[in-house]
Amino acid sequence: MAGEKLNLDILQKDVAYSGEGISVKSLEENIHEERSVQNVKVEELKVLRERNVEIQQSLAEEVGKLRKFSDYLDGTATKGGFWAGVKEALSHLPGLKNIAISQRSIEELLKQQYQISARRVKDAAEYVDTLKQSEQDLYREIDRINEKIVESATNEATAADHVLELKQLIDQIDAEIQTVEAGSVDARDLEAKQDKARAQLAMHSANLQLYSAAEDRYASLKNNTRKLVETIRNLGQDIGQYTTAASIKLDMASAQIQAIGTAADASVVMLELKKSLDVMTESMNQTTQFVSETQVFFRKNLDNLLQELDTFDENTTKVLDENLEFSKQIEDARIEKAVQKAIENRAKRGDAAESPAEG
Amino acid sequence: MSANLVALHTQHLLEPVSSTYLGLLSRCVRVARLNKTFPERRQLEGTLRALHADAHHGLYDGIYLDSRSGLPNMASFTRPLADKGVGEDALVGYEDQASLDAKRDQAEVFARLASKRRYYELLQKSALAPVDEHRVLLRRHEPASSRASFRVELTKLDGSGAYLRVVIELTQTASVWSHKLVDLDTHGEVASGTEALRGMVYRFASYDAETLFIRLHELEGVHVERVQRGILGPVRFAIPFEAGVATVLESKADATDEAWSAARAAHAQDTLMLASFATDVAALDVREEKSNDPFHPLLSEGIRDVERARYVTLRERHPFRVYKDRKFVVSPSLVDGVKRACASAGCKNLVYSLR
After folding, report:
1. For A34-48, B30-44, B92-106, B317-331, which range has the lowest pLDDT when averaged over its residues?
2. CA-based diameter of chain A, in Å?
3. What is the pLDDT, as a whole number, of residue A339?
4. Integer Cα distance of B240 and B2 in angstroms
5. d(CA B150, CA B190)
6. Is B262 helix (H, G, I), strand (E, B) or coil?
7. Cα angle at B30 between B28 and B32, to 5 degrees?
8. What residues of B are in the A interface, CB distance below 8 Å?
């Protein structure tokens, strides 16, 4: 009987790929799914950027009021005399517009200003946890992508091994066909087995290409996710530092304002008042500085990141398109390419196995 | 150190001592049976509860106290108020409690968010003590005689570190409404204080009821019937902890000094508390002019001879009387000593035991 030496068990072999199986469509869907997590985070950052602008504006206004008030109390910024200056400065504080200075308590106004400032700093601090939460979400996303990468790499190796086995079998069948009479029953039987082997080769070589492409695409996705994590982590650390400093300064300012107490309404304690204002201004300055710096950070980084993500989008689509195009190409050429890849893959693994110390 | 002076008249009380202190102060406020003369008890208890570690679950390491009055200072009063506002917005974006609790061990931020969610939820349901609050209530409106009576209320965290409430009952006539102490709405039903009234009451809130009575009563067309002040504090405490005993660092000397020192000496390892709650009323219906407050005699008793004649003339113009009182809530070991101190000052005060 012809072909007795052939290892035809290969054709019956159950090739176990881990995961849910792969196709061009399923790969596209999976990548899209993973990308949507990134998109959500980028959207969150966009919202944060807008909120940042709002906070910066309100903080800048408050710092302006405090600084102006402080300057007037210092007697350095008014031409119309001390009280004229104070009156004008007070008109910038909450609820004091168009109200004569003698009618409102400076102590009360300062306490109100303190409460507004405390709220602003707490608003900014709340972002730290929002960002840290996003950071953790993205770390989990990276873990998930890593699992996909490992899975794809494993499946790629499995496919490569099987492709080589099938290629070898097809070559052996070819050789065997040469030894039997053309058109004979044996020849037909061998040809039938070879067709089976070719069909399986086509399927597994396609898998080899898809798993290889998946590995690369997931790796790109991971790189961008890492960039997002870094952006968020840096921003969170910056906000954390500034708001902690601002919060401490505000606590100290509150002590001075409270200690000044009712005496704050008397001109004799204006020096003390100025001192408390300076502390408060310093605190607000710290917060404003953070907002200002993160603003620049956002402008520089978020836009770049978005651009890169857009590019990534284009690249992904391009790769997927190429893949679709590729799948339409002539079967033999594709198989040849897959086999070549499998050989290289095996060679690489062989190298790695021979030089474990380098790993 | 559990208590450090960190800024002017400010001490930082660290956990767990701060929560022990807050628990004691809450109990004092309850035991004192505060009436409407004082700042609202429910709000005050809400704030003290919100400052407690059981509420914020370790989000803060302690509280700031006024080192003279022994009460939470403005930063501490403001903290839950600001957190309540921040929390109202933040809760919208938070995951539900069960999800956050389930993720507690995944990362520190989830544990904190789980705690914050509980804390913010509690704050949304809590009535909190305001740092300052003005209210003007219309008591009676007589359009025919162009008269209206008002009740003005101010709750204030005072510059001395005390938390107080000032209530003024006054009547105004239409002819002088141009002064605009109080505005009525077009229906004559809802009153609101003008900035002038707000400012005046606010600035005078720290002075005796008598001073504020005279100041307001001297305004043309304004007839003051009653000025009353309810003041929380000062508070003294001694809370032993690993590294020593936390106390109020800048307590002002008063009539209870001796009793306090004796109790500290005899009960060095015990937690001690001495809280007092004062009232100061200047009103037309007070029968007898007297101070039953061992910390504060009547203004007339402390006035210098050169000013006495002017003071007497002023008082003759205004037929009100003054009554000052103070009640105490103290640890059991302080009850007898504080009673004796009050008696020595010629006063007979309520002294509740904090059991």
Report:
1. A34-48
2. 121
3. 78
4. 10
5. 10
6. helix
7. 65
8. 6-10, 64, 66, 73-75, 78-79, 81-83, 85-86, 89-90, 93, 106-107, 109-110, 112-113, 116, 131-132, 157-161, 194-196, 198-199, 202-203, 205-207
Mean pLDDT along residues B90-115: 93
- Nearest neighbour of B195 by CB, restricted to A104, A252, A256: A104
A184 near B CB under 8 A:
no
Name the residue among B75, B89, B110 with its Cβ closest to that of A251: B75
pLDDT higher than 80, residue A45? no
What is the domain partition of chain A in residue ranges?
20-350
**Which chain B residues are within 8 Å of A257, Cβ to Cβ?**
74
DSSP B216-261: HHTSTTEEEEEEEEEEEEEEEEEEEETTEEEE-TTPPP-TTHHHHH
Q: Determine the residue among A54, A117, A254, A267 to mutate to test chain B binding: the one whose Cβ has the most chain B Cβ atoms within 10 Å.
A: A254
Residue A311: which residues within 8 A CB-CB, separation 6 or more? Answer: none
Residues of B in contact with A260 (CB under 8 A): 159
How many CB atoms neighbour CB B258 within 10 A?
A: 13
Say which of A122, A136, A255 has its CB closest to residue B10: A255
The span from the CA of A54 to the CA of B302, in Å, is 55
How many Å apart are CA A156 and CA A167, to the nearest integer? 16
Contact B109 A250 (CB under 8 A): no
Q: Which two tokens stand for residue B236?
A: 């003294």
Please tell me the distance from the alpha carbon of residue B269 to that of residue B120, in angstroms, as a whole number. Answer: 36
Q: What is the pLDDT of residues B206-215, one digit of tens each?
A: 788 998 888 7
Q: Do A115 and B82 touch (CB under 8 A)?
A: yes
Tell me the pLDDT of chain B averaged across its residues. Answer: 90
In the beta sheet, which residues pair with residue B149?
B140, B171
Cβ–Cβ contacts within 10 Å for residue B101, how many?
17
> What residues of A are in contact with residue B89 (Cβ under 8 Å)?
123, 126
Taking CA atoms, A133 is separated from B104, B106, B242, in Å, by 12, 11, 36
B174: number of Cβ within 10 Å: 14
The predicted structure's pLDDT at residue B228: 97
| Chain A residues close to B110, C-beta within 8 Å | 133, 136
A244 touches chain B (CB under 8 A): no
Sign of CA dihedral B201, B206, B210, B211: negative
Give B22-63 pLDDT, tens digit per residue. 999 999 999 999 999 999 999 999 999 999 999 999 999 999
Share of chain A above pLDDT 90, in %: 8
Q: Using a CB–CB cutoff of 8 Å, tell me whether A135 touches chain B.
A: yes
The proportion of chain B whose per-residue pLDDT surpasses 90, expressed as a percent, equals: 68
Are A103 and B109 inside 8 Å of each other by CB? no
Neighbouring residues of B199: CB distance < 8 A, sequence distance ≥ 6: A102, A103, A104, A105, A108
Do the Cβ atoms of B73 and A105 come within 8 Å? Answer: no
- For A197, the token pair is 């082997």
The pLDDT of residue A303 is: 52
CA-atom Rg of chain A in angstroms: 35
The C-alpha atoms of residue B317 and residue B46 are separated, in whole angstroms, by 43
How far apart CA A154 and CA B100 sit, in angstroms, is 35
User: Please, what is the average pLDDT of chain A?
Assistant: 70
Chain B residues close to A119, C-beta within 8 Å: 82, 85-86
User: Nearest 5 degrees, angle CA A216-CA A218-CA A224?
Assistant: 110
Please tell me which of the candidates A103, A111, A119 has its beta carbon nearest to residue B131.
A111
The reply to whether A126 touches chain B by the CB within 8 Å rule is yes
Task: Measure the CA–CA gap between B173 and B194, rounded to whole angstroms.
Answer: 15
